Amino acid sequence: MVELFKIGFLTITLSDLVDILIVSFVVYKLYALLRATIAGQIFIGLMIILMISFVAQIVNLKALSWLLQLLTDVWVIAFVILFQPEIRRLLVMLARNPVFKIFTKAEAPTEAQIIVDAAFELSQQQHGALIVIIRSTGIRGYAETGDILNAHLSKDLLTSIFFPRSPLHDGAVIINKNTIEAARVTLPLSNKTEVDGDSLGMRHRAGLGISEQADVISVIVSEETGSISVAENGVLSRGLSKDALKKKIETALSIEPIKGWKTIIEQLKKQQ
Prior knowledge:
The protein is an alpha+beta fold. 53% of the residues lie in helices and 19% in strands.
């Protein structure tokens, strides 16, 4: 190993320098985590004992080294037992670090799964809902007609928004990836007033209307029947099961935006 420099009788190599830097970084991070706590004060005491033990080993003070080694072993065990919460918090912080996330598989519910679970819970309670999921470009102009939330997507938040007594339950919710951008949004109505001989309510016409004008997919929960429909590219699919709804959302979100607009153009050509 390449020798860098000497301090008295100690020879410092490149690996020694890297080792010191890593240990210093770990000690600093531990101190930053435990600072201003009782654990932090004990940690400083433990570091002092370790330094004295290291110096004792260097100058070959065998009796002092043996005594400090015993004390260090007992102190480390006591430290682990007494400060489990702080150690657990440190491990959680490490797990959340982007460097370590690449080695772990996220088990959080997907966007589609959250929306499906919320839609079917609202369906069981017969609470009407209109959820607009953005596929490519945003629909900021429509979002600004409602209340901007920019909240993290969750099933509980969605079901709370569409609770009949909630001040936000009227209108639509706009979702962009894992964010609820806005609630109580006003959407353009489709010119279609019926599908397969069945008349469409305002909620269904709004969900259908926005799908005709933007690259989105709309999930509509009927307040009267509890049935779930999806509007995509100006086409309304009704009475979907839980699995069918999830598959439809996942497929819509995985299709390239350009292909979605090609479908719209083809449908417009057929109507002419």
